[in-house]
Amino acid sequence: xxxxxxxxxxxxxxxxxxxxxxxxxxxxxxxxxxxxxxxxxxxxxxxxxxxxxxxxxxxxxxxxxxxxxxxxxxxxxxxxxxxxxxxxxxxxxxxxxxxxxxxxxxxxxxxxxxxxxxxxxxxxxxxxxxxxxxxxxxxxxxxxxxxxxxxxxxxxxxxxxxxxxxxxxxxxxxxxxxxxxxxxxxxxxxxxxxxxxxxxxxxxxxxxxxxxxxxxxxxxxxxxxxxxxxxxxxxxxxxxx
Length: 241
Known about the structure:
Structural class: alpha+beta
Order of helices and strands: EHHHEHHHEEEHEHEEH
Helix content: 25-40%
Number of helices: 9
Oligomer: single chain
Strand order of the largest sheet: 1-7-8-6-5-4-3-2
Shape: globular
């Protein structure tokens, strides 16, 4: 089921969640078992604009603008990604990884992310600490035809609470808006993942509602869902409302 909530911080209130809808705004979205981005209220952009977004995510200079010790995920780095997410403290909140986490399940998931990059519809980066060890990953998923995207990721359990996750998401948000050229970003988090929810709220994203995200095994994760537009982000950066 999907529940639309009033935005406690003001701003927009649109209707959808992170998987297929079975209630609430189902008349708008179409009844199904889970809600999937992109959403019906997102406007399409021109083919030229969508093509520019696909090109930007694959542009070396654009990727360099993201900054930090980041490396684009490729097939030869999947083992490093597995070493990160085999820790349940890292992988349990990530609903898109089939459980139990195995080399095979991570390889399948990572291969999908690499294919998304090849289509110009996203990019996944590994991040590293000062000692050169993998510290986390960030996944950018794009819907170029809507100039919209989503950010996901995780950091090592020993780095939780140090502010690294929030700083990385803020940098990624700015990069998607100002370098890649998106108009809108959507985020989701599990209802019981209070740490991620607090981080997203503090970044200025607007809560839109709750919905059920479908896992690879066919089960569902109840999730909260947020949106932010480029104009809202720019106003927040200048202290405007």
